[in-house]
Amino acid sequence: MAARLPGTFVGECSVDNLTLKRGKGLKNRTNVFLNTGLGNGRKLSMSLNNHQQPDSHAIFGYFVCNVAKSWHSSFRYTQSGYGDFHSSSTSCDSVGPAHDVPFDTSAREQKLTNSADSTELKSPSGNTLKLVSGSCYLPHPDKEETGGEDAHFICSEEQAIGVADGVGGWADLGVDSGYYSRELMSHSVDAIQEEPKGSVDPARVLEKAHSSTKAKGSSTACIIALTDQGLNAINLGDSGFMVIRDGCTIFRSPVQQHDFNFTYQLECGRNGDLPSSGQVFTVAVAPGDVIVAGTDGLFDNLYNNEITAVVVHGVRAGLSPQVTAQKIAALARQRALDKDRQTPFSTAAQDAGFRYYGGKLDDTTVVVSYITGSGDA
């Protein structure tokens, strides 16, 4: 994510063929570029370098689970044309290399198995519900060596997932905000394990995690838990989640931004937004529902109906959540590199007065969770 930092003001902003003035400058450039003045007189520059081709350097991603309480480097998944993938399944014990699964192929489809580690909960109707999750992470090609700035976790036993997106603008100050997002997610896992079984409160979890995170940087956060009351969640910033039922999006968390490309963000201390600024949700779910959580690398590049189409394909083909997440991430990366397609980011930029077209290349995290019932295979 390249976005403004807390406590800054925009001095100059330009996008491809920009015609709208903000502040004191107007320039035509090939990238989204922000010059911001800091309160201490320093100047911060941030750019959204767009439309770059990925390379194939060895990279890694981060995955937290409740077994080891530590970060694990996930195995690499490579697919021609999309760069390197990192995929995580629902427990550290089952993390492994994924198979090639291009979006349009039906051969070698990985089927959903009974081996996923998940705890059963009862819905208000008395049905036993389970959360079966998998994930895929694609760092920005320019950030492969450091692992990018996204982080996520899957707590299978506690029926919880979370994503965080470190704000990329900190790099211009010599700070890797990926440390902040990863520490925030690690402390979230610790806080979840202290919650009553079946009654995880994501808002309380985020409060605890924020107060414990001391790394420099800032980050968005989205934490979701399947509880006795349904799906409980908190979202702060432009990460988020959606719930899909019978091929339709029945819920999508709204984006929280102070201004275009200026997301709500947590930071150590009280310099950023506070966890209490996050939006809290309770969503009734049923067997067959699918949750898709992700960072803005997903939601800036794919519309709801595009994500839903991949989910419908995956469910009908019997794909595991992990493979479905890989397919969604692959399509998001494809859109990010497309200069000639309208995307959610280009729509938002145009609505804000900028002349911009195409996707936005960024770290991309996708977590897919299937809600299953006690009778599901």
Protein architecture, described:
- The chain is globular and about 50 Å long.
- Strands 6, 7, 8, 9, 15, 16, 21 and 22 form an eight-stranded antiparallel sheet that branches.
- With 377 residues, the chain is an alpha+beta fold.
- The chain has a domain at 130-372: Phosphatase 2c, domain 1 (4-Layer Sandwich), CATH 3.60.40.
- The chain has helices at 178-192, 202-212, 296-299, 304-317, 321-336, 344-351; strands at residues 8-14, 32-38, 43-48, 62-64, 71-73, 76-79, 83-88, 120-122, 128-138, 150-155, 160-165, 218-219, 221-227, 230-236, 240-245, 248-252, 257-259, 262-263, 266-267, 279-283, 290-294, 364-373.
- Helices cover 18% and strands 31% of the residues.
Question: Could you outline the blueprint of secondary structure elements for this entry?
Answer:
Elements: E1 8-14, E2 32-38, E3 43-48, E4 62-64, E5 71-73, E6 76-79, E7 83-88, E8 120-122, E9 128-138, E10 150-155, E11 160-165, H1 178-192, H2 202-212, E12 218-219, E13 221-227, E14 230-236, E15 240-245, E16 248-252, E17 257-259, E18 262-263, E19 266-267, E20 279-283, E21 290-294, H3 296-299, H4 304-317, H5 321-336, H6 344-351, E22 364-373
Antiparallel strand pairs: 1-2, 2-3, 4-5, 6-7, 7-9, 8-9, 9-22, 10-11, 11-13, 12-19, 13-14, 14-20, 15-16, 15-21, 17-18, 21-22
Catalytic activity: O-phospho-L-threonyl-[protein] + H2O = L-threonyl-[protein] + phosphate; O-phospho-L-seryl-[protein] + H2O = L-seryl-[protein] + phosphate
Domain PPM-type phosphatase: 135-371
Cofactor: Mn(2+); Mg(2+)
